[in-house]
Amino acid sequence: MSAARDNLRTARRIVVKVGTSTLAHASTGKLNLYRIEHLIRELADLHNAGREIIFVSSGAIAAGMDKLGVKVKPDTIPENQALAAIGQGVLMHIYEKFFAEYGQTMAQLLLTKENAIDAHARENSGNALSAILNMGAIPVINENDAVAVDEIRIGDNDNLSAIVAAMVDAQALIILSDIDGLFNGNPKVDKNAQLIGEVPEINSAVEKLAGGAGTKLGTGGMFTKVQAAKFATTNGVTMLIVNGAQVGNLRRALNGENVGSIFPATISSEARHEDVR
After folding, report:
1. 108: nearest Cα among 122, 129, 127, 126
2. Domain that residue 105 falls in
3. Domain holding 231: CATH number?
């Protein structure tokens, strides 16, 4: 077991990000309630074990499409904003129901890029998150797609989750994806492609390995995950990409087992704060 994976076993504050492709059935685009319930149960149990959990979720637009029976994701910003506004309530209702069934209280936060760029807004957002955690609740975060436009969008929830992880001084960021991790080739076309278990440095060679688009429902491919890893690791957060379709992978990752691709933090959180001061 590597030192980075061993550290995950004792990480107390953890950001977990789930993508649309993990939340929805690939064949229909409808929400995968079986997978969602198992994920929420796992998050609830990790919270019971003393971990502080921050949950960053995509899926509002997909939930809106499901609610209205829309088969193809629209191209225009207003239509996607409308779908997000409809779907956000649907998604939060599902999350609240499942969290309540497992004895947990959740809180919803919608963030925009302004919350990350502006120092005052970032501090306020961080304080709100800290207060929620101190109250024993689980924050559920999404980018505010209903009002975001190209000029203010963070762009994807991979980068949003990395920003949130740095904001709250998390020890770990776990991204649940529709792929096992970062490969040395495209596993969808190259049967000999090998999973890279640990990425000690994000250089140009690693960036070239990152692919483009994810699925027709999601916005983030491996490229955005590598971008997120670069931000997270340079801000004292260890990041791990694992396959969210396999129930139990989150727990296995936090037990230090050899799943997914891990990107060890390049500095400690304490060192980052020293640099800021």
Report:
1. 129
2. 3-276
3. 3.40.1160.10
Helix (H) or strand (E) holding 97: helix 77-101
261-263, strands of its sheet edge to edge: 106-111, 138-143, 52-57, 13-18, 172-177, 238-243, 261-263
Sign of CA dihedral 225, 206, 271, 6: positive
* Tokens found for residue 49: 């074990």
Residues 200-215 pLDDT 10s = 999 888 888 876 444 4
Determine the length of the chain: 277
Tokens for 10, please give them.
């004792």
Q: At how many degrees (to 10) do helices 60-68 and 77-101 cross?
A: 100
Backbone angles phi, psi at 184, to 5 degrees: -85, 10
Cα 184 to Cα 49, 107, 175, 177, 209, distances in angstroms: 36, 39, 19, 17, 6
pLDDT in tens, 87-119: 999 999 999 999 999 999 999 998 877 777 788
- pTM, rounded to two decimals: 0.90
Structure tokens, 41: 């149960």
Q: How many domains does the chain have?
A: 1
State both tokens at 183. 């490969």
CA 166/CA 170 separation, integer angstroms: 6
Chain centre to alpha carbon of residue 190 = 27
Token pair 């809106």 is found at 64
Residues 233, 236: Cα–Cα separation, whole Å:
5
**Scanning the structure block, which residue is given the tokens 């949130």?**
164
